[in-house]
Amino acid sequence: MNINATLIAQAVVMIVFVAICWRYIYPPILSVMKEREKRISDGLEAAKKADDSLEEAKLAFDKELNQAKAEAAEILDKANARASQIVSDAASKAEAEAEKILTSASTTIENETNKAKEELRQQMSDIIIDTTQKILGDEISKEKHEEILKKAAEEL
Amino acid sequence: MASELTTESYISHHLTNLTCGKTSEGWTCDPYKVDQMGFWAFHVDSLFWSIGLGALFVFVFRKAISKNSDASVAPSGMQNFVEMSIEFVEDNVQSLFGSVKNTLIAPLALTVFVWILLMNLMDLVPVDFLPVLAGHVAYAIAGDAVEWIKGPESLYFKVVPTTDPNITLGMAFGIFILTIYYSITVKGLKAFVAELTLHPFGKYMIPINFVLEMVNFIAKPISLGLRLFGNLYAGEMIFILIALMLFFSSIPIGVLGFGLHLVWALFHILIVALQAFIFMALTIAYLAMAHETEEH
Questions:
Q1: What is the pTM of this model?
Q2: Distance (Å) from the alpha carbon of A49 to chain B's nearest alpha carbon
Q3: What is the pLDDT of residues B251-296, one digit of tens each?
Q4: Residue among B47, B64, B86 minimizing CB distance to A6
Q5: Residue B68 within any structural domain of the chain
Q6: Which residues pair with B43 in a beta bridge?
Q7: B296 in a structural domain
Q8: Where are the domains positioned within chain A?
Q9: Cβ partners under 8 Å of residue B70, min gap 6
Q10: How many beta-carbon pairs below 8 A join chains A and B?
């Protein structure tokens, strides 16, 4: 264990290395580390903000969705009401039409019947007159007994 | 030349530095002329590894910067290690130094920590690898040209710089100078001198105060250097003794030596890191003391 000039040499070498580290190594690495640290904390903050805004957007979206749903339901209700209205309208219209047709048909039938009856009566009276004329000769003329014939026809 | 390999020569071979210095015949690294060199001799092996490992530290950290320059890219590989060590040092400096602003302390602590860690880690390289390799290389290259290299074993080569008290005390000395510098610049010369002379007995006992405070003041760097040296020297010594079990004993003891080497190496990893940390922590603490303006 002998002390010699190595001690001084080592002290000088140490000063040189410390100076190199002090001047060229430590500050750049530290500054980059600090910068990165800042970046990371900024990034985390931004992520948190984004999270918050996402939450907000979600809420807004839910709100809009609910509103749209309510609107849709309303529209649907209205449409349903209108549809049933149309259907019932159509049904009542059709019923009325049917009624009308039925009425007119029955009227026509009645008319026809009356007409037929009239004709029948006419023919009957004609036949009776004819027959009576043949039996009685010319005693009875259509023109003379118009009144009586009419009465008879009405009684038939 | 010690041709016979004995236990004694094996140990002393491992504990002797490659020393170069000036003798009356000029510069030489002849181990038999170390006595003539006096103070102005250099432990070339210690300085070689010390500078080499320091350069490795600078190189690795420098390389991490070039990758590091963009803060938007996630760090990877070595860069993570570099940033981790810087963060570790920052934490320690923060806790010991608190509010004092001094940009030199953290780089100093980082350099000291990583550098000593690397130097200590050389202890885990098996004791004979590098010395024998260096001996053979030196013999092959300079065996004919240099008269004192008579064989591979004539070159002493100590691998772990922190087992050389010159290295550890040299670093402690550098820190000591910094302590004095900051004591004077931060507190002012008057306060610094007052601190050394007016405690603990007041102004009428200045000589006694000075002697007591001086012992306290000088003991710091010496204990700092010797603590590191002692721990690593002892560890190295045990590695050498375990290696001896392999070379100079029967086979069972040799096998036991393998086991012991493993156990000691595992334990030594702890010492390696711990001593580097202690040196760094005390460096920061001493410099923090130099910044304390409050009287105690």
A1: 0.75
A2: 20
A3: 888 888 888 989 999 999 999 999 999 999 999 999 988 887 655 4
A4: B47
A5: yes
A6: B19
A7: no
A8: 23-155
A9: A32
A10: 129
